[in-house]
Amino acid sequence: MTFLKQLVLVCLVSACFFSCKTDTETSINQTASFNIFIDAMKAEGLSTGNILVYENGEVVFKSSNGLRSISPVDSLDINSQFRLASVSKQFTGMAIMKLKEAGQLDYDQKVNTILTDFPYDHITIRQLLHHTSGLTDYERVIANNFVKEDTTKQYILGNDEILDVFYHVNPELDFQPGDKWEYSNTGYLVLASIVEKISGQHFRTFLKEQITDPIGMYNTVLYQYQIAADEKMPHRVFGYGLALNQKDFILNDYNIVNDVRGDGGIYSTLEDLYKWNMALANQTIISKAYLDEAWTSGKTNDGENTGYGFGWFLDYNPGEPKVISHSGGWVGFATFLHNEVDAKNGFVILTNDSGENFGTIYDNVKRITAGENYQAPRKSVYKEMAKRIYDNDVKDAIRFYHEVKTDTIAYDVSEGDNNRLGYLLLNENKVDDALAVFKLNTVEFPKSANVYDSYADALLIQGDSINALKNFEKCYEMDNTLMYAKEKADALEKALSKS
Questions:
Q1: 287: Cβ–Cβ under 8 A, 6 or more apart, which residues?
Q2: What's the pLDDT score for residue 499?
Q3: Measured distance CA(222)–CA(261) in Å, rounded
Q4: How far apart are alpha carbons 348 and 325 in whole angstroms?
Q5: Could you tell me which residue, 114 or 6, shows the higher pLDDT?
Q6: Bridge partners for 144 per DSSP
Q7: What sections of 84-184 are H helices per DSSP?
Q8: Distance CA 128, CA 169 (A)
Q9: How far is it, in rounded angstroms, from Cα 220 to Cα 92?
Q10: Of 86, 193, 268, 454, which is the active-site residue?
Q11: Residue partners of 481: CB distance under 8 A and separation at least 6
Q12: If exposure means fewest CB atoms within 10 Å of the residue's CB, which of 110, 188, 231, 287 is most exposed?
């Protein structure tokens, strides 16, 4: 071997050594930072749910911290199965891609050529995938039109029952197909029903046979929801939350549409979702050509990019390394799946405490993976106000608000939190307390149109229709895109004119 070749070899080995050492040190430092963050949250009595982080295709951190259920009390572990909520949509997108790969549908095919009772003529599968269909929200349709024959029963509705109501009502489109982007759970419900119609299989079976089992996701299932604990699914996680008095835990797991397929409903684990992200990055689930199309932004009729693909938000521009992600939120669950496809980096966040700490968890996972130190969460003003309302009175709560509102380093103060507190108080029939909080919001945030709508809601419940009408009208005058305020004002004015 010549001296030059030996020198080149030594340099290559040295470069590899120092590079590997640097990568190893980075991973060790990162793991230590994550552990410090988790320990700090635990010390404050805050759940962080289940978290997994991977770099260069290798898991560098995972943790489990919180409650799997509150009755009986049981802790989370690494194998806990969380409801994914809208993170499920990428699996629905993949199911459609699998049918396309098999030559059983076209993306630009009209929906009513498959679902013959579908009442709209010009909506395509691609528009459903891209959230540009204009379909209205099925939850609103069910809330306004589903009749409970047995008022003592807790109904659990799925696609078939919901589509029956939807077809019967035949609601107008929110906009013409393709005119704009608007997130649509209804669209993904319809996509799952398309899969069932074409394949002749239940969506649960199709997902298992065509997607999850082939890549070893054996702890992932489209769950047939039941309210009680299920002995067939011992690792199932239940959603819960903290009561407004800031003392008691309450279950937050049931919703009447909990059996819907396509827009949510899949339960999974950290390890399975890591496998899923890697199957996408390694193109073992479907070929690159299909993934490239799935990760190309949809467009509106005027050519505007939507930033959304076939079940993923696209966090990159054309020509940049691919980064895809999706969040999920339903009942007590808040989830996030992040996938840097080309770099093979990513993370999974799964929580079940009604999103209480989700923002802090997400922000710190991003900070630590970027090499920054964790940031302690700010204290919640609205939670302390709620506690003071229950322990003392609303005057004490508002006095506390004024004492700390300028301390934005230690406290999280926002219009949205005040608004949330007001509606939570309304739900507890604390109307006078809610009115005081909503009134506070109009004083603190007078340039926000929404605060007047919320104040009007409480005034209306109290029976002050005249002032409620004035505030609904003020909301709409300040922001004429808030059509709900106009609709409330029109309805109230009509009712007052008859009285």
A1: 101
A2: 75
A3: 8
A4: 10
A5: 114
A6: none
A7: 89-101, 125-130, 138-145, 159-169
A8: 20
A9: 14
A10: 86
A11: none
A12: 231
Separation CA 316–CA 468 (nearest Å):
45
Paired with 308 in beta bridges are 313
Residue 193 is a catalytic residue: no
pLDDT digits (tens, 9 = 90+) for 293-351: 999 999 999 999 999 999 999 999 888 999 999 999 999 999 999 999 999 999 999 99
pTM (2 decimals)?
0.88
Instruction: Say what the alpha-carbon torsion angle 127, 133, 136, 138 is, to the nearest 10 degrees.
Output: -20
Query: Which residues neighbour 141 within 8 Å (Cβ) at sequence distance 6 or greater?
Result: 162, 165, 166, 169, 171
Contact call for residues 326 and 312 (beta carbons, < 8 A): yes
186 CB-side CA count, 13 A: 23
Residue 66 has pLDDT above 70, yes or no: yes
**CB neighbours (10 Å) of residue 483?**
10
Looking at residue 371, its pLDDT comes to 93
